[in-house]
Amino acid sequence: MTTTHTYDVTVEWTGNLGSGTDSYRSFSRDHEVLADGKAGIAASSDPAFRGDPARWNPEELLVASVAQCHMLWYLHLCAVGGVVVTDYEDHAHGVMAMDESGGGGQITEVVLRPEVTVADASMTEKARSLHGDVPALCFIARSVNFPITHAPVIRVQES
């Protein structure tokens, strides 16, 4: 029997400035990303595309999804593999390349740069190697068509 999971979200445009999409410059790209029982995410387009820089944009959310999925699987693998992680922070970086016509583009790579703190120095090498096991498990990484690399930094918790 196949197990499936469904995810329902609503994207609600809030950028009608009075004349709708009367022209390219007549509307805001602002919108809300909503899901039942969750706080909304204020979103827009990238500022390069007339978006609000104070709001999340789809490109950032995609990079964040890649980083979140990697982190969650990594922590799982550490927990079952005997690596005690006491701190984790990722400074993920995504690159989007525009096509020559300027009308579209695609994410061409995401680099994850997790900074991981482990409880004991004996866990350092295993903590580093487990990052390599994540791509086969992370459903986001398995669903995208661009390379995801990682450059982890492993530290030992100070006593």
From TrEMBL:
Q: By its UniProt entry, which SUPFAM superfamilies does this protein fall under?
A: OsmC-like (SSF82784)
Gene3D superfamilies, sorted: 3.30.300.20
Pfam short name (any one): OsmC
What is the protein name for this chain?
Answer: OsmC family peroxiredoxin
